Amino acid sequence: MPYFVIKVTMGNPKPLKYIANPLRKGLAFYFIACMAVCVLTFLSSSYAGAQNADTLLSSSKLKKMSLEDLMNIEVTSVSMRAEKLTEVASAIQVITGNDIEHSAATRLPEALRLAPNLQIAQAGSHDWSVTARGFSGLPSSGGYLANKLLVMIDGRSVYSPLFGGVFWDVQNVMLEDVDKIEVVSGPGGTLWGANAVNGVINIVSKSSRETQGLYFSGATGSALYDYAAVRIGARSKADTNLYYRIYAQHFDQNSTLLQNGTTAKDAWDMVQGGFRMDYYPSKANTFTLQGDFYGGDENKDSLNTHQITNGQNVLGRFTHVFSETSELKIQAYYDRTWRNEPTTAAPFSYSLTTYDVTVQHRFALGRRNSLLYGVGFRSERDQASRSFNPLGIYMPVYSAFIQDEITISPQLLKLTIGSKFENNVFTGNELQPCARMAWTPSGMSTVWTSVSMAVRTPSRFDADFAPSSTPFQSEKLMAYELGYHLTPGQRLSFSFATYFNHYNDLRSLDQFGANTPLIIANDQRAESWGFEFNANYKLADWCHLKGGYTYFNRNIWAVNPAVLSASVAFESVDPHSTIALQAMTDITKHISFDLVGRYVDPLLATPVTTAVPAYSTCDARLAWHNKLFEVSLAGQNLLQAQHIEVGTIEISRTFYAKIVCRF
Amino acid sequence: MQILKKIAFWRMIIVLLTGSASLSAQTPVAVEYQLKAAFLFNFTKFVEWPADVYSSDQDPFVIGILGGNPFGSFLEDVAAGEKVNGHPLVISYFKNTNEIKRCQILFINKTGQYNVSDILSDLKGKSVLTVGDTPDFLKLGGMVRFFINASNKVQLQLNPDIAKTVRLQISSKLLRLTEIYTQK
Questions:
Q1: What is the pTM of this model?
Q2: How many domains does chain B have?
Q3: Contact call for B35 and A62, based on CB within 8 A
Q4: CA–CA distance, A155 with A239 (Å, rounded to integer)
Q5: CB within 8 Å: A76 and B5
């Protein structure tokens, strides 16, 4: 069971040195860097502010677009955008479907690389680590993972209670049908509930009204060995307000390489299909029913084993709009996932069945208050074949939340306060309050600040894997954020967010004497600080630039002498600086060329991991397209033959060719 | 051609880096109306008018805008150099109802001192595609209505029956993508 083989074998417990003052010289550098970015932001804004606001789209470009394309453009007039992105009192980045199309991404984790406020590392052909604001650790031998990020696909949580992370191998969506991916860095516990500690990723797919017609794509290349996808979207003849689509896709991914140049034997394939129906019986009501099923077979590392996965889910959602200020949303879903390693010496299988129901209501109270409240119930039942005690449990979660957005001064000052209340089987009641303030001195800029508390509730791995003297507690975060959004014109926007996080009861590995068993406890504390800077510039109708710089630093210290020094690496093996840049250009009417570049700082060696050097690399895509067809050539990780992102697996330079037909 | 574009691109990069850009200074038009302009242009391709709406081959195809002009010069940019079945495409602006002249598409802007149902009944029997964006536009007898859906996208609502009565043929492609309005 490679997911949970603790690779810490030490004769004597090595207590971690107490750190008297956790904020050392890193903090000084951090503040200098913060100041520099602030100055840069203001300088560029004074320059850009002098420009006239330009039209977002050109007449020649709009003319060429199909009706479907026109219907898919979001109306982000200055005022709307002001409400949506510039006035939001949190660090949010949005990856649009168009951004994904103009990248070489073939799978969801690759598409997430387009959000500069995420730290992403590929650990193997099917293993990824995705986090925001650090804390991507090493609780396993096979994959690196982050356990403080909540990920939702169309409102369905894909965060696994097994280890508190996401199995990225089975999170596949048809990228063509992705409307947008919202990436919030920073806590979102008040709205989203437990485990939205360091961030939330919200993947939103297009409605079936927006995906009418036939879509087919096929690709072949060096890492993506073969890929085929088909989607059919149609509208009911009997009731013209009913739209639906069905899709299926299959891919084969080649193995990555070991450092000695031989294959890492982690090739895999996956087949997935699904449907979505959207029914609009009247202006006020919307029904959505969607579902997916998948099955995959993965070779697992050098152990020469393989793993089989499959899953099914169905989700229904009903939205009723009472008025512009009042809306009701009811959602229910069923989700089952299963994975099995049949051929290892010690076979392991794990199944999880989830039922989830939530009701949300938003309404205006007077002219100044917009209230949002909701209740939810989630039932999770799992079954492991070994290693957990008990092997299977029932994990009900009851939750309620309330949030009030108070307009203190119209168009100028907004305060949002709220809290989530949650009850889980491991730790009982949890409270996650938050207060956010947004000051909008002009239509083009917003200064915001927030104070929030968030918790990561115990995963099965934390609570039921190793023997424990005391029950595992929730990890608790106290977060302070300060941010700035600036939109000097319709073509240009900047955002800057900085934070200071304090973690209590962070997970630790304790050992109370040689040859005694390892205990998973809450004996670490941590402080982290950093900032995210992003820019978005539509240089011309045919050229769009996006990018950002993220800085992260932290200190982790033990509060108990029995804590093993490996505990730090268990929670955080993170780079300080990361840069992501994307350039999307339409060279002619029919040819586009896109570049995505990234830089990641080195990972320092720890007692259980080796150092990984810094790397820069880029993806490029050249495409020819007309109304019906698109042919593209793409290369990924182009700057070197291979590089390591985390661990010891080499990620190679790869190429693929792709053809797309849309009718 | 491509080479020129590439040079232009790198010149833009240099301009960006040196900060000496002078971006064109058009009056901004809300994206919503840019899209509506593009839809109006698209209707000329997805709707068929009877041949007798033209008295000669030189007769233009007219998109009329009634009331204020929310499009700026954007709709004219879209129409520049375009032809509909060989007839040059022109845009006419009518300040009020008595200025309305021969047109094939009439966009009735929501800002205007007039009664929409009166205009629609005046146009009865004429092969004019009436387009509007007020909530009750189709209820009053209009043919095409723009609205913004929950995900902030401009969508269309259509009454094909009314269009049929004045011999306008709406293509199935357009019908497939729009919400059909039926009189209750």
A1: 0.74
A2: 1
A3: yes
A4: 27
A5: no
